[in-house]
Each structure stands twice: as C-alpha cells, then as structure tokens.
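Model it.
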Amino acid sequence: MVYLNEHNIAKILKAIDNNEILIWRELFLDLHPTDQVNLFEMLDPEQRQIIYKNLSSEEFAEIFQGLEFKEQKEVLIELEHPYAVDMFNNMYSDDAADFLGEIDDLTAKKFLEHMDDEESQDIQELLEYPDETAGAIMTTEYVAVTANETVAEVLKKLRQEAPDAETIYYLYVIDNEEKLVGVISLRDLIVANLDERIKEIMNVNTISVSVLKDQEEVANVIKDYNFLAVPVVDSLGVLVGIVTVDDVMDVMEDETTEDFGDMSAVRGAVDLDMISSEAAKRRLPWLILLLFIGMITAGIIGSFEATLGKFTILAVFIPLITGMGGNIGTQSLAVVVRGLALEKFDRKRVISLIKRELGTGVIIGLGCGVLVSIISQVVTGSHPVLGFIVGFSLFCVLVVSTLIGTLVPLIIHHFNLDPAVASGPFITTINDIVGLTIYFTIATMLLNYL
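Modeled.
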C-alpha cells in the first residue's frame, strides 16, 4: 500500500486521461482507502465516469462510504441505477442506512426495493431506530459464535465471514436464543489451543449498550473502556449489532459541532455548505429572542435617566461594564459545558467548581476593579468617587457574571436539558442586564457624593 503524494497523483491522473485502465487501476487500488477518496474528490465529471466504468461496484462502495453526504448525493446522480444498487449491497449496512435515511423517502424506497433482500432488510431495520441512538449508528456486520464451538471451528468460520464484517477484533458469543453471553478478542482466539471450546476462553463479563441508548453515551462507553467496538442488545439481551470506534468518532464530531452551534446561538446553521437564506432562517429566531431580551437593557438605562442626566460621564463606561461581564460569563460557561460533556461532575465536584469560579471572579474582579478605577481617574480627571463607582461596579459585575456563567448551565443540566443551550450570546445578554442594573444602582446610591 502506498500513500498519496504529488507524484502519484500526476501518474494516476495521466493514466486516467490516457485511458490506460490497467495502469491507473493498479496505482489507484494500491492507495490507502482514505487516499482513494481524496484523489476521487479531485476528479472532474468526465474522469469520474471513467472510474465508474472500470471499478466494480464493490470497489467503489468503499470510496462512496468515505465521501461527505453532499458529495455522495452529487455522485449518486452520476451513477447508473443498477450500479448504484449493487454499490449499496456492498456497503456496510450502517453507512448505507445513514445515506438512505437522509435522502427523500421515494428515492430511498426505490433503491431498497431493488437491493438484495437480506441487505435491504438490515438497512430498513436500522432506519426504524430513533435518531441519535445506538440502534441508529450500529452495524449488523459482525462475527457471532457459540460457546460450544472449538477454536478451530471458529477460525474456519472467521476466514469465511471476516471479509463481510466491519471489524473482527472482537467475536461475540451468543446462546441458542441469540442472547449475548460473552466476548472473545481475536488475540485470545489466536493464542488458544485449537481444540479448546470458546466457553473456556471467553470473557463473560461483557459490557454492552441498549439499542435505544443515546449515541453520546455510547461514545463515552467506548472511550471509557478503550473499546474498538461495543455490542448492542435489545430489551431481551439479544445481540442486534455493534457500534465501532469509527462510528463514535463521527458521533463526537457531530456532538461537538452541535455544542458549538448552541453556544454561539447558531444551532443547525454551522454547515459551511448551507445557503444564505437557510442560514439566516435558522439563526434569526435566536437573534429575535435575544433582541427582545436586549430591550430590557435599554429599559434599564431609561429607568436611570435621572442619574445619567446629572453625570453623563457614566455613559462612557457602559461598554466596559457590559463587555467585561459578558466575557467572564462566557469563560465560565465554556468551563462548565465542557465538564458536563465529559461527565466530570458529581455533587462534590459541582460545589468545588462553584467555589473555585467564585474565587476566580473575586480575584479577577479585584484586579480589574482597581485597575479601571485608577485608569478612569487618570484619563478623565474626574471626581475620585467616580473612580470608586466604576471600579466597585466592575468588581461586583465580574463576580456576579462568573456565577451566572457557572450556575445557569448547571441548572439547565439538572433538568436534563442540553447545557449548551445556555449559549454565549444568551449569557452575555443576561449579564448585560445584570451588569447595568448593578452599575446604575451603585451610581445612584453614591450620587450625592459626586
């Protein structure tokens, strides 16, 4: 196997353009599957047609699986229907289900009706599971054995079934009712005596997940136990599939993207290929909500009109007060949301976190409060009390904003909601309201000393 470089790219493209089929096939198929995908993405439509004509549907299936969904849709239009059907027959069931579940129902049904009965049934069963569950992301291509089989018999079976299995690093032991009773690693199988029974060497303390378990929790199981795959069972303990580590990597990427969208108030609009109108449609509701919440800020300023009327200099420091409150609140939010995503918090650690963030807010508040108090005196040459008002207000705002950024996601999580919905803009807007209230309240209380 060789790796893709400029020299290989040039040779393969030249061979494709010159219709030197044997040469480019040998060079192309000798590449790592990932490099095959990368090279395929470089081809123009005419060059891709040469690929379709001279690669079998089984060979192309692995390339199709490595493409992004948008590219898969574009490629599918270029494929002849029989070729596409046979390609789906040769794809892993979970990858085929992922794609067919995203396209329109009529087109998906057309492909499923023409596929092999067994492959079609496997995919349809996967499509019936709720989104973002173990059942929706699992594959049904695995190797299952029985406890009474010998090592020699299993090795013979493995040679026959391995080409169609997504992974063979673990073999799953089932009973007569197909319930999961044990697991054996490929390593243990290889070093065992040929006449030993599987029941003598299998591990009966199996870790499995429910078919309806949330995909993020499944990912955490694989991460925590350093698995390459985890078996999936139904409510009766029957083995129905496995979730592999490559599926989990896709899950973690999707979950991280979703969290970034939530924290930026752009959920569902982080797709770089999304058109402007669709992106605006998904982001606008959040912004309208924040707009109405932000109007409370204007109301607060209006309610302290008398204070501002006497000392307009107070308006100069409004951006500083609101900006710093939003910044420190977002920092605390990021710490908490990340910790919750990694499931690092129990009751004791939550209390410890709140104390730590409070202490952090006090220290930062003192430093920034003293600094801005001095700067306000030097820059504006105003009354010393003004410096105290600005400095003390900033101290209070930073402490309170730190607590808001810490407590809000924890409270949301307590009610079994995604803490990432306590988005950065949401926290910032809330802190603006609280910050201005603190600032003008302190200024009003000390008005007589100015």
